[in-house]
Amino acid sequence: MTAILPPWIVLDSLLHNWLLEDIGRGDRTTSALFPANSIQGTAKWIVKEAGVIAGLPIAHRTFKLLDSSLSFIPQVPEGKLCEKGEVIAEISGNFDALLTGERVALNLAMRLSGIATLTQKYVDKIADLPVQLVDTRKTTPGLRLLEKYATQVGGACNHRMGLDDAVMIKDNHIAAAGGIAEAIALIRNSIPYPLTIEVETETLAEVETALQHKADIIMLDNMSFDLMRQAVVIIREKSDRVKIEASGNVTLETIRSVAETGVDYISTSAPITRSTWLDLSMKINN
Questions:
Q1: Which residues are catalytic?
Q2: What does this protein do (predicted)?
């Protein structure tokens, strides 16, 4: 699967605001040393620990917002597993743009590379099985588009981007509506075509009810491996159309056992919520 960034018309306002947050009323250090557009220079980005690279197009665009003539040339493709010390980008342009944009560009690439690195570890655990890893809506406010892009770079699929992408009937919806049957009936009469309906289930009885009322996707939430296997058999015997998703307490140690139950998808927030930043640095060439 190819990771696809949203268009710049969507991302530029985010990058612009993040630059404003860091620059404030001006980069006091850089502007005192290098008046705008006064001195040209070159720099390189270096990986300080092994990991999967993500976010180089974002970094490029960040610098471009400060200096449209700046050159940012990636030395590796997105998604490459790089070793410590590897040069991943060569940059040339005005020193004021290079130094003023350095922190924002690096922060974004470090965050996204960390997510891609951990995502790939999860994906590698199940790569030989007919199941796909998907992310969740547990993302950093303001960073969802980019964090979900990073999971794609790492080899995962995106779950819904927001509440308007699909219907997911969760435990609190079920409790408030009075049950799975009631929730599906109310929702089916109001949602537009072609939205799908996913139902979160915790018991085999709930799985049976979701099947009876023609849910498109059934999530097996926090079930034991044995219960998941039973649920998969029940669903497959009654429908080859319904997709099965497993979720809850997915770790690097458990993900393969979850996949072996026969589900179609495994959703987890871990690649985003449990990842650490990948250490990168920018060095000005002397």
A1: 103, 138, 170, 200, 221
A2: Involved in the catabolism of quinolinic acid (QA).
